[in-house]
Amino acid sequence: MMEILRPNWPAPSNISAFFTTRVGGISSHPWNTNNLSYDVGDKFEFVLENWRLLTRKIDLPPNPQLLNQVHGTNIVIAECSGTIKIGDGSYSKKSGIVCSVTTADCIPALICNTQGSLVAAVHLGWRGLSAGIINSLVDILQVPAADLIVYLGPAISQENFEVGSEVREKFLLGSNETDTIEKINSCFIKKNKNGPDKNDKWKANLYELAKVYLNQNGIFDIYGGDFCTYNDPKRFYSYRRDGVTGRMASLIWFS
Fold first, then answer.
1. Does the pLDDT at position 110 exceed 70?
2. Is 178 exposed, middle or buried (0-12, 13-18, 19+ CB in 10 A)?
3. C-beta neighbour count of 112 within 10 angstroms
4. Cα separation, 95 vs 55, whole angstroms
5. Could you tell me which of 58, 82, 110, 176 has the fewest CB atoms within 10 Å of its CB?
6. What are the tens digits of pLDDT across the range 210-230?
7. Which of 244, 237, 240 has the alpha carbon at shortest distance from 203?
8. What range does the domain containing 198 cover?
9. Cα dist. 155→94, 199, 241 in Å?
10. Which pLDDT belongs to residue 195?
11. Residue 198 pLDDT grade (very low, low, confident, very high; cuts 50, 70, 90)
């Protein structure tokens, strides 16, 4: 039985949003069993069947916008043409068009507006966040940020997300606002508290970093962010934990 998660958020009633898990599907190890990415070495026919099963499970509209995700800041217009676009997010202001991202530790963010006339799905990893993908999203949507509602889906927790000092420095050097720098700094915990900052490892809170940038762009209606893909191997894929593995899909559209 395929396990699907629905976000608990105050989205308008015409919004449909889902997060898949690894439960269900037909993929074999190490992609077992509900892998929805064609780019991780799984058999094409298995992934295709997993998408067919998902379509029947949630009554998915045809041809979700799939992405070739590159850890950048490009947000594309979602279409139902079946074309895979290069980008780390998509949006739609047309009904029945599915925005989607695939993840296995990075944050899948699903977004809608309070009017139920816009949806977006964005892949938030540390590279995209530090490069300004939230700024790109707000710029391209061209709607008041205060009207946006965000749900942060299954991702890795701070406990298990170890990064080098260069990652922390990239975030810190990317802002010149004292308040933002302080908030970013609070998202990192040094692994060796007595060691030098420069060469040490840090535990990064990806969820809180996402919230810092969402808040900086005027978005405060944020939900979710209480998962850990790494700690839940029965339900979630985790690249950090397993290396070669599958991907979950996060999908949103409006009717």
1. yes
2. exposed
3. 27
4. 17
5. 176
6. 999 999 999 999 999 999 999
7. 240
8. 162-204
9. 28, 26, 12
10. 66
11. low
